[in-house]
Amino acid sequence: MIKRPNLTVNTPLVDRSPPEVRTQRRRLRACHECDWVSALPPLNSGEKASCPRCSHVLVKRHRFPAQRSMALAIAALTALVLAISFPFISFSVSGIGNRIELSQTATTLIGFHQPLVAIAVIMTIVVLPAVYLLGVIWLQFGLLRDRPLPYSRDIARTLAHLIPWMMADVFIIGALVSLIKIVGIAQIELGISFWAFCAFAVLLLMTTQSIDADWMWFSLEGEPLAPEGTQTGRPAAEQNLTGCPTCGLINRLSDQGRGYCSRCHEKLHQRLPHSLQRTWALLGASAIMYIPANVYPIMTTTSLGHSSPSTIIGGVVQLIQMGSWPIAAVIFIASVIVPVGKLVALTWLCIVVRRSNVLNANSRTRLYRLTEFIGRWSMVDVFVVAILVALIRAGSLMSITPGPAALAFGCVVVLTMLAAMTFDPRLIWDLPLPSSTSRKTATKDIVDG
Question: What is the pTM of this model?
Fold first, then answer.
């Protein structure tokens, strides 16, 4: 018997009618990480359904998802408008100073012939988050009116692809590192924009976490029946099926292992085409770019007419000499340990992917999740350069210019992120496993609502 959530009658229709209430049919899902087919259990607010084979979260249920997401998105967008409308940071030394706005962290780089780095900065901290928030507002407004607005399906499909590339939280860490670097030699003043951007980063994270994709897609397009004959407790590939990575719906594939999702129209494959080859190519390119990223200076500091180039490791050493051990540790981990660790981890996964078994498939899947999560945090050093170059502009007295390593290191970050995205973790599980793992219903755990 399906337990109905305790929602008030004056709640908007979309928020008081979760999928479990609107359909009495079993709703099936194929795990995106191990391909196991499971039946979703009835969920209440604050609960999640996890894959019984690899523990990947299939569905996470929230209370009042449309209202919550829309409220958070509006608040985040308001904070972003404030962040780009007022001064961000100012500094002064020996009577000479400078004040910058948030947008200048990108536009200043163009003047130093670093347009690609400038585009990466402004896209990841302003443009993509703004597009994401406007998309959320558009979707949820239509759902709350019980009449989805035009292009809602295309917008909903796009939102999931934007999340890895929004880096407002990473930018805040970069701003803090920048302040630590100069606080001993100049007077720093934080503007309204700085605090507004901190609020924006938190609200953006809360917005992404508040999206109940399962509920949203059910409200937008309903849920067609799973293909006839679909069996739980078996991999989808064995049944010529696959789960849509965007909306979760199980679809039958053609004899060539291809197709399109019948609900969101996402292109589907039994396994990502040439997954290992593409991952190897991206790993090779990122390893090559990592050499100039560490050999060449990432920025050059000019003080009293004397120029001093600084590499990534040189910056870490400088922070240690200043006594800023925690910040030095952050930069060392983000700029050295994370990129190298990600390269090593993905290389190892590509080598051993065909040798997986039931004893190590879970641990290798957890390693993949870790590499996918940590990659974006390497952008800290790029953001530090962007902030310092825009802020420290006092002529021969003190100024900072970007070095060639900034572009090279940015390429390393992007290439390793793409490598993790092109690696198909389902390949780890593509071996016969004992039937003892064949539970037919997804596990159900309590999470914060």
Answer: 0.88
